[in-house]
Amino acid sequence: MNFAIGVDGGGTWTRAVVVDQDGQELGRGETEGAVVEAHDPTSSVEAVRRAVDRALMNSSLSTPADILLAGLSGAGNDVAHTAIEDALVKSQLAERIIISTDVEVAFHDAFGFGPGIMLVAGTGSIAWARRSDGTEVRVGGWGQHIGDEGSGYQIGMEALRCITRAEDGRAGPTALRDTILRHLGLEDIQGLVGWIGMASKREVASLVPLITEAAAQEDPVSKGILELAIQGCRGHLEAILEISGPWVDQPAVALWGGLLSSSSGPLHDEILSIVRDHGLKILGRDPDPALGAARLALEQGLSNRQ
Amino acid sequence: MNFAIGVDGGGTWTRAVVVDQDGQELGRGETEGAVVEAHDPTSSVEAVRRAVDRALMNSSLSTPADILLAGLSGAGNDVAHTAIEDALVKSQLAERIIISTDVEVAFHDAFGFGPGIMLVAGTGSIAWARRSDGTEVRVGGWGQHIGDEGSGYQIGMEALRCITRAEDGRAGPTALRDTILRHLGLEDIQGLVGWIGMASKREVASLVPLITEAAAQEDPVSKGILELAIQGCRGHLEAILEISGPWVDQPAVALWGGLLSSSSGPLHDEILSIVRDHGLKILGRDPDPALGAARLALEQGLSNRQ
Questions:
Q1: How far apart are the C-alpha atoms of B287 and A304, rounded to whole Å?
Q2: Candidate from A170, A194, A242 with C-beta closest to B239
Q3: I need a labelling partner for B164 at 20 to 30 A (CA). Which of A19, A212, B15, B243 fits?
């Protein structure tokens, strides 16, 4: 085996990591998001290809790799899984292609094949746990329409709903009105109705920094929206702890996703203290899902050779 | 003038009423809903044509009428307004076509050119008022993504969200889970995620009877969902009263839409008592928007001849 490639494709980023047969990182590249669309996996494949090209840029390696494992948001859906698998096989980026989800590869980076709990809050939200006996359970992850509590998408949507209610006089005014209209280049709330009819989940979630800034400046509506998101994350955490338990040794919790990142996640500190209030250990670093994917690829490749 | 046609096209029904030049009803017909889609008004036009054909079925009249006024849900949007207007002109159902909204024609039936307040809760929701000086104001009507509080769409969406939360153990169990899965012919909650990704606003709102039945059988989750919808309607009512006031004489309130209908609306009684608690008069009948459209057509036609 010459080298393996791991890919993490979420709503915001697609990242690729190249490793040698000992799991040592040889290169890394990133490009825009690549949520899998079942009816057209083309843009996902192109994002994966660009990230891989960038990861190989400063090395003497060239594709096909021995194996590529891609953990992609949206690939939990069977139809999407098959569509992206077929398309990546045709891409000839590697001799062997394995499709997984972004959550699974992040979890692998955090806990390997061991037990643990991962709370995810980025564009979407989900909680995932592996018990000591190896069985896995999840909470949330029901998608933007009827799930994603505590996610960036929920924060963005709540902001827009609060703006319309304020416009009507059904709720107090909020600084978000002018900030968000200006950010989107819209004249009025009617324009917002048109925008939201076309906006992607990622575009809605990209409003989060406007809400965290307004909250930092004491906008009460924005503070309420963030509090709602914190309660959403808390709900996921408490439910996953309940259904994955009872635990003999308290499990470690990994926090992942843009809202929970230790460097810049706006909800990181609050969720960290909720985790500690539950007497749980915290994984002392952010998961590196692309590296998790690369190492999982290696495990698969090696175990196949035995 | 031989005859005028009024059309009311909402999420659930398209109704047409034919009147003579004195405003006397000559016929009436109905077919499925006809919310205007800007990119393709064809299905709206076909629904209008079918409703008109049925209204004329037992008369000796035939199109083109002198004038047709269609109050269509979705026609408040400029692009959609133009698209449906062009398409109806080509349809040759009448010498002259006027496009309005379903809310406007319902309001006209309720209050003519006079003042009043109309609270709407059907597939969507909105409140509309005309002050004594003739100026008009609205509350809500921001659409399914960031508005429609107190609507059938909101009730349906909340039901699905409660089901996913219950499935995770993030909230108490609800009878809605089995009822709704069975109703939709789905095996599990994952199927629900697929369904909601494709479902129309009307399909979501059509779940309402399942929730009202479960509430009648004391399902606490369903009762909570209906209470949330009542608060949504209350919010619309109180805001429209505030921004349309101060009123010298307390205005009458018309209740319209499937949730508020006096014969079968599941929220009718609760909202009626909220209206009375505010010391407001109630319009003693359900608006007849297609007749309102026909009479408005007549007014337009006659005033043009003078």
A1: 71
A2: A170
A3: A212
